[in-house]
Amino acid sequence: MAVVTGGASGIGQATCERFVDLGWQVVAADLAPVGSRARAASDAVLEVQADVTDAADITRLVEFTTERFGRVDAVVTSAGIARNAPVRDTTPDEFRRTLEVNLVATFAVVRAFVDLLAADGGGSVVTISSVSGLRGSQDRAAYSASKGGVVALTSQLAFELADEAIRVNCVAPGSTLTPLAQKAQDPQAKKAILQSIPLHRYAQPAEIAEVVTFLAGQGSGFVTGQTWTVDGGQSIG
Ligand code: NAD
């Protein structure tokens, strides 16, 4: 079974749906209700309303998973925010909040699940970075810093948890058609982004979910500490 944070929308939701297609049971954790296709698709998706920046909510999520399943095979950390702004308009408090949700909460969620992952012979963690975490992007100081941190955190966690047969990998999506991307980009930025993608289109959330679920599953059993870029070639231009 898998736990997916940010499971109510976008890449997290598509990941829940793909897990269900593959026969997994899923706990979707999100601030927002999962009242979506993910749940309609199957009763294999259970929902926990949780704020990943809240320690008590994370504890509740681990307890729920333990009570229902007594194990976890994969944890996917897709909850995230993106508030784009130039450096001068990004206050240190806004910068901290982005790091809190995208980076610190990724660490806190994985840390909380380590014992359960290790208990049953190991498991898999998939974190979500971004091409913005791999190189500079327009107006993304806080977001890029948080996502670069996720890449570094992934290799560190992989290194440290390998002895317990816990693999930790990261997916760095390029521009993907989700509410987050639509909120964060004005029409001019969208045009520039499409020009910068060699495949000249956005990713569908399902295309990211396909890679996430592959890294979560046993088919990728010898892959750990890696960041896989899924971006239509955006980062090679
Ligand atoms: P989305 O807005 O569709 O989904 C994000 C989900 O995270 C939402 O359901 C939201 O409620 C949840 N969330 C936010 N803060 C939370 C919190 N504190 N606690 C619990 N849940 C919280 O966005 P998305 O595009 O699917 O993004 C998913 C991940 O993919 C993010 O980490 C994002 O940075 C990353 N990403 C997205 C893109 C893109 O173009 N869409 C590109 C690269 C990386």
How would you state the average pLDDT, rounded?
94
Unreliable residue runs: none
Number of helix segments? 8
Order of the strands making up the biggest sheet: 3-2-1-4-5-6-7
Query: Could you say which structural class the secondary elements and strand pairing correspond to?
Result: alpha/beta
* Cα shape: globular
- For the record, the CATH class is Alpha Beta
Cα radius of gyration in angstroms = 17 Å
Number of β-strand runs: 7
Binned, the helix content reads 40-55%
Judging by the overall fold, what is the CATH architecture?
3-Layer(aba) Sandwich
Q: Work out the count of structural domains.
A: 1
CATH fold descriptor: Rossmann fold
CATH superfamily: NAD(P)-binding Rossmann-like Domain
Largest sheet, strands/sense/barrel: 7 strands, parallel
List the helices and strands and how they pair.
Elements: E1 2-5, H1 10-21, E2 26-30, H2 37-41, E3 45-49, H3 55-69, E4 74-77, H4 92-119, E5 123-128, H5 141-161, E6 166-173, H6 179-184, H7 187-196, H8 205-216, E7 227-230
Helix pairs in contact: 1-8, 3-4, 4-5
The structure holds nicotinamide-adenine-dinucleotide.
Nicotinamide-adenine-dinucleotide is lined by residues 5-6, 8-12, 30-32, 50-53, 78-82, 101-102, 128, 130, 173, 175-176, 178-181.
Molecular structure report:
By secondary structure, the chain is α/β, with parallel strands linked by helices. The protein has a single domain (2-174, 207-225), classed as Rossmann fold, CATH 3.40.50. The chain has 8 helices and 7 strands. The chain has helices spanning 10-21, 37-41, 55-69, 92-119, 141-161, 179-184, 187-196, 205-216; strands at residues 2-5, 26-30, 45-49, 74-77, 123-128, 166-173, 227-230. It has a 7-stranded parallel beta sheet with strand order 3-2-1-4-5-6-7, with helices on both faces. Helix 5 (141-161) links the parallel strand 5 (123-128) and strand 6 (166-173). Helix 1 (10-21) packs across helix 8 (205-216), helix 3 packs parallel to helix 4 (92-119) and helix 4 packs parallel to helix 5 (141-161). The longest helix is centred in the middle third of the chain and has 28 residues, at 92-119. It is globular, with a radius of gyration of 17 Å. The mean pLDDT is 94. Nicotinamide-adenine-dinucleotide (NAD) is lined by residues 5-6, 8-12, 30-32, 50-53, 78-82, 101-102, 128, 130, 173, 175-176, 178-181. Residues 2-174 form the Ketoreductase domain. Belongs to the short-chain dehydrogenases/reductases (SDR) family.
